[in-house]
């Protein structure tokens, strides 16, 4: 007799719980496999790079004895599979090694630099949602009108204009000429160190501490770089929202709702947009993840101390511990955001439950 038959004869139907358990188990297995794949890729990248990690630590003028001692200390004499297992074990303990560039543990550097990138990406994504979604819906509803053409042109420009050029122009106009916002950097030197870091996001920490002058200064510094990322974010979200809405507005159920005499706002936002929302969750999640990993140029132009600039500077200085640690954290964040998008997708769409 099968287990399912036994459970049914007991008077309680456990099949829904078994299905949930299978899905959770499958998700955990996929997460483990993704983690293994991600760590394997970052490990291989660190080993095939032409930079010598030993020379990066001891310098090119070190004696042979010092070089060999560090070579053994790093475990480079062991087989490659054993080096990978040691690498995995160190990561699970939160040990990414030390950075040659900063002299600090890589994990401490990541705790300092990653919140800065998270701050920019979050502001840009929120701006993209608040502006891009209504713009995309309006463009679809008013297809072929001036509003539609403007949204399409903005979407095209948002993907076409080089971010480094646009960032330098924005600095020249709004900072150097008009003096409307603060310049490069995350905060003025005068305000540095006033607020004790709790979350790592200066504006949140300043608000929690009641230091509103620090908050205003940090916000002024964040406006330009966040706006550069927001242009890309809202352009992509608006373009995809328009495309999804056009597809839904041409469906028969929309025509039926209009024939029944429902208000246009109800047809658009309650019926059509609810079906678009499921697709938009995936698009917004991918946009947020791409901003986290693709903000290197923005951080470089605005001297923003984020994880992208940290990885880039570490790469130029052959600081492979920092490169691998930063890349791994960004990759894990990407996976986590995708998992969160999938969870929200299941919550919004009853059919996925």
Nutshell version of this structure?
Helices cover 75% and strands 0% of the residues.
Which descriptors would you attach to this protein?
about 350 residues; mainly alpha; MetI-like fold; 2 domains; 15 helices; about 0% strand
Percent of residues in beta strands: under 5%
CATH superfamily of the largest domain, called what? MetI-like
Within the CATH hierarchy, at the fold level, what is the topology of the largest domain?
MetI-like fold
In DSSP terms (H or I, runs of 4 or more residues), the helix count works out at 15
Order of helices and strands: HHHHHHHHHHHHHHH
Model regions low in confidence, pLDDT < 50 over at least 5 residues:
none
CATH architecture term of the largest domain = Orthogonal Bundle
E-strand count: 0
**Class from secondary-structure proportions:** mainly alpha
Q: Note the quaternary state here.
A: single chain
Please identify the top-level CATH class of the largest domain.
Answer: Mainly Alpha
Mean pLDDT: 82
How many structural domains in the coordinates? 2
Terminal Cα span: 29 Å
Radius of gyration: 25 Å
Shape: globular
- Fraction in helix: over 70%
Largest sheet: none
